[in-house]
Amino acid sequence: LPDKPPDTQGWALLLEYDGTGFAGWQRQGQLPTIQSVLEAAGAKLGCPAPCIAAGRTDAGVHAAGQVVLMHLPGRLPAIRVRDALNYHMKPHSIVVREVTAAPAGWNPRFSAIGRHYRYRILDRRARPALDRNRVWHVHHRLDVGAMQEAAQSLLGRHDFTSFRAAGCQAKSPVRTLDRLDVTRSGDEIIIIAEARSFLHHQVRNMVGTLALVGAGKWPVAAVGEALAAQDRRRAGPTAAAEGLCLMSVVYDVDPFAKGPGSCLGQRVNV
Amino acid sequence: LPDKPPDTQGWALLLEYDGTGFAGWQRQGQLPTIQSVLEAAGAKLGCPAPCIAAGRTDAGVHAAGQVVLMHLPGRLPAIRVRDALNYHMKPHSIVVREVTAAPAGWNPRFSAIGRHYRYRILDRRARPALDRNRVWHVHHRLDVGAMQEAAQSLLGRHDFTSFRAAGCQAKSPVRTLDRLDVTRSGDEIIIIAEARSFLHHQVRNMVGTLALVGAGKWPVAAVGEALAAQDRRRAGPTAAAEGLCLMSVVYDVDPFAKGPGSCLGQRVNV
User: Which residue blocks in chain B are alpha helix, DSSP H?
Assistant: First the structure.
């Protein structure tokens, strides 16, 4: 864990962003990234150090509930921190939904005990008009029942090498998938994925593989076989970034919760 | 009803569009409108006459299920009509979801027996990032319970003069409101409004009035009193266009329904 810069207060930020047009969360030189926009806003308030996010979302991936730690000098009220950051991030499609003082030793990434992602597929002939850049557009109808059945074969603790990006930096390919539910709502398929943590591209690689089953190109049983093969070449392609959204990050104690159960017993989102 | 142009086939189109940046449905000289984009695409296929929509949505208002009648020469398959119109409407955020041959005498506006609208309010301090241009942003939390209670006083057959735009061209201000439900989902308030037809700005004026109740500026009973006054000055302001979406238009027989219950017994959205 990085040390807390001296004379600063650590703030937990709850972030929402539209990932369209950004090269992902992480700072990458001069490319537009979520981190670079947030840190530029933080710099206006004297932020001396890089921010840490719970999950480093890829280019084009969205967040409704990313969690970030930012250090700021002085003793600003939480509401002022939120409003000032939002002011300085205009007109970018990034906002701080809530802010709360971070407890000592808390780290958004290593303290997290769960990540919830949502993946949206629009499976119809006409391209999306209202949900452009929010859904993966698949031109033909997919069989949601078959996708849901196949998804269940990925639940539990496994070596997910078959669904791991080549550049993934995690030490171990073993993860425990707690939930992978595939449901339909009209012309849209919604996939909810929950785990303590995911490998790089794991959700998108699982979705791309399930889409093969939904299209009738793969039998349901092939998904479990791809998992067992522990070989990236045995699973399906990576689903498009724009369908993915980091919905929430789970902690033992929700830093943003209202009331005495909160780490601060303080609600800042009035 | 306009006559059917000779040697043409009438097509019922199910349209989805993002109303952002458009001056509404209706053709208005050189302004960008949904109708002008659709008719320009239709002209490529030989469309000889104006299209008719079930509801003339205002500037910035969206549709997930607008219904339009377009006449085209020849006997194209429905799927070709849909794909050709979508091709010619690129890159505008307007798509034809489905196409079906219109029965003789069918008119999308006068044959309709119901309109379903959804209105979305984001009531939190931080501006919308993911739903920019899709929700009305209200900076303070609204009381949904009070809004729902007040909404029920508008149900039924009434003179809705208090909620009618000055320029409304309807002959009578009397409408029958079948449903007005206000519910919360996280930081969002969703209002579902259903009636055979609505006056101009009626949904947005009802929402703007309910928001006064939600903000605690008006007591619940004031909404029924505003209705009874039959005076536009007695009701609240017009809610923002971007929160409104025409979800669906109801007909005795759904022209887009699959199977033998359809007006054609034919499903075109493969």
Answer: 34-44, 78-89, 144-151, 202-214, 221-229
Please count the CA atoms within 13 angstroms of the CA of B265 that sit on its side-chain side: 1
Q: Tell me whether residues A129 and B95 touch, CB distance under 8 A.
A: yes
Tell me the one-letter amino acid at A195.
Answer: A
Q: How far is A90 from chain B (nearest CA, A)?
A: 10
Which residue type does A102 have? A
Chain B interface disruption, residue of A14, A15, A16, most B CBs within 10 A = A16
Alpha carbons A205 and A202: distance in angstroms, whole number: 5
User: Is some CB atom of chain A closer than 8 A to the CB atom of B34?
Assistant: no
The whole-number pLDDT of residue A259 equals: 57
Nearest CA-CA partner of B255 in B8, B14, B3: B14
Query: Hey, of B86, B130, B140, which one would you mutate to test binding to chain A, going by the most A CBs within 10 A of its CB?
Result: B130
In tens, the pLDDT along B193-224 reads: 999 999 999 999 999 999 999 999 999 999 99
Q: Which of A84, A115, A113, A101 is nearest to A4 (CA)?
A: A101
Q: Is A73 exposed, middle or buried (CB count within 10 Å of its CB: 0-12, 13-18, 19+)? A: middle
Tell me the pTM.
Answer: 0.92
Residues 6+ apart with CB under 8 A from A81: A11, A45, A72, A96, A99
What span, in angstroms and rounded, lies between the C-alpha atoms of B34 and B23?
A: 8
Give which of B104, B31, B124, B18 is closest to B66, Cα–Cα. B18
**Mean pLDDT of the A243-258 span:** 92
d(CA B155, CA A268): 37
Q: What HEC string does B33-79 produce?
A: CHHHHHHHHHHHCCCCCCCEECCCCCCCCEEEEEEEEEEEECCCCHH
pLDDT in tens, B170-186: 999 999 999 999 999 99
A174 in Cβ contact with A158 (< 8 Å): yes
Beta bridge mates, B9: B72
Q: Shortest Cα distance from A225 to chain B (angstroms)? A: 31
**Chain A interface includes B64 (CB < 8 A):** yes
Neighboring chain A residues of B134 at a CB cutoff of 8 Å = 130
CA B157 to chain A, closest CA, distance in angstroms equals 32
User: ipTM, 2 decimals?
Assistant: 0.90
